[in-house]
Design goal:
It is a single chain. By secondary structure, the chain is α+β, with helices and mostly antiparallel strands. It has two domains: 228 residues, FAD/NAD(P)-binding domain (3-Layer(bba) Sandwich), CATH 3.50.50; 144 residues, no CATH class. The chain is 28% helix and 26% strand. It is built from twelve helices and 21 strands. Strands 12-15-14-13-16-18 form a six-stranded antiparallel barrel. A hairpin with a 3-residue loop joins strand 14 and strand 15.
């Protein structure tokens, strides 16, 4: 839709082929129905992160925000730089885009799933079921595989691979973690502020802070999901959970962080427990310290072992949940085969791609939608030239 709006006007004829019965269903599901459409902070992107950086240098958060304001959307910025529609409803984002497409004469054809693209005499023919559509330029913006029925089954990548583009294996990202059942037994439903560190055996890989949610299959919560894509490929994935934020020893944060010094964390935790032991002894030491479900796992430990558990509670991982539970796709069409200024294919003139189709993904917090909108706007503007 962002590409179509940027391409339309000035006498250009633009059509959107939508495989679903209506446009924007996935957009409605973003941000728990609130649509965190942009983040005003800078953050790293993964996959081909330098490509994303170049795209956002040419069409950044200010340009995307101005685009939505021109459409009539009122927005508000919340803590962490997250930008939402002022009314807090994702439907408002979809409504302004649909109305603008009507005003600008964009033709929207639903239940028209693109299945094949052919280049014929310098133009393109897009096949959708029994119909075929001829066009001078074509933008492929089919999204990724995340979101179950709201994503695609992987077939959309063939629109570009059949034309010579390369696919980096798609994997679920921003998705809950799966663990050995014994590690989380009896903790399902427990929400705790924590610092999570993903390790390969004992080697730390990445850390994130936030609210962790224990489930019967593993660990969820945004901080756990931020680390999920990095689980792929690890030989011995282990999640270490530091409960210092729960005990007030460090501030509660909700972001990726640098890998903490485990030794310093342990020393701080042990000093805290020794000070507490001077006031309370025996089982009273655990009372009021943390939830009963977790206390049961800690009961009977020495002070040193308790400190070790509280700053490095080990959860061996077995993988991550599937695309049905993922917020975004890691992998996709190799972005380096496209121009960062125009999103045009370097292999086939007149062919463009944008959004989650590309081998680019970001953290939770509006970064993925920001890249999707920005790359769509660049593609639409260039295709209309």
């Amino acid at each position: 839709m962002a590409a179509a709006l940027s391409a339309s006007g000035n006498g250009k004829s633009v059509a959107v082929l939508e495989g679903a019965p209506r446009v924007g269903r996935k957009l409605l599901a973003t941000g728990n129905g609130r649509c965190n459409l942009i983040n005003m902070k800078d953050a790293p992107y993964y996959g081909e992160g330098d490509f994303a950086k170049e795209v956002l240098h040419r069409c950044g958060k200010e340009e995307v925000l101005a685009f939505f304001h021109r459409l009539g959307l009122v927005t508000r910025e919340e803590d962490g730089g997250r930008v939402y529609p002022g009314c807090g409803q994702a439907a408002a984002v979809l409504d302004v885009m649909r109305k603008a497409m009507d005003r600008q004469g964009v033709t929207v054809i639903c239940d028209a799933k693109a299945e094949k693209i052919e280049k014929i005499n310098g133009a393109f023919r897009v096949f959708a079921g029994e119909e075929a559509f001829d066009c001078r330029r074509v933008i492929v913006a089919c999204g990724g595989m995340a979101g179950g029925k709201l994503g695609h089954d992987g077939g959309a990548y063939a629109l570009l691979t059949r034309l010579g583009h390369t696919l980096k294996k798609p994997l679920p990202a921003l998705v809950p973690l799966l663990s050995e059942k014994g590690a989380v037994k009896g903790l399902s439903g427990l929400r705790l502020p924590a610092v999570l560190t993903l390790c390969d055996g004992e080697r730390p890989v990445a850390s994130a802070a936030g609210e962790a949610l224990f489930t019967d299959y593993g660990v969820s919560g945004i901080c756990a999901m931020q680390l999920s894509a990095q689980v792929h490929g690890l030989k011995r994935p282990v999640l270490k959970m530091d409960f210092s934020p729960m005990l007030g020893l460090v501030p509660c944060r909700y972001e990726r962080i640098s890998i903490p010094d485990e030794r310093k964390t342990y020393e701080r935790m042990l000093a805290f427990l020794k000070e507490r032991e001077a006031l309370l002894s025996g089982e009273d030491l655990l009372c009021g310290l943390f939830p009963r479900l977790l206390a049961e796992k800690m009961r009977g430990l020495s002070l040193e072992k308790l400190a070790e558990k509280l700053c490095a509670f080990r959860v061996p991982l077995t993988g991550v949940r599937g695309f049905e539970y993922a917020q975004v796709t890691r992998g996709g069409i190799c972005a380096g085969e496209f121009d960062t200024a125009t999103m045009e294919s370097k292999k086939i003139p007149g062919l463009y791609a944008a959004g989650e189709m590309m081998n680019v993904d970001g953290d939770c917090g509006g970064y993925n939608l920001l890249f999707a909108f920005a790359s769509g706007m660049l593609a639409g503007k260039a295709a209309a030239q």
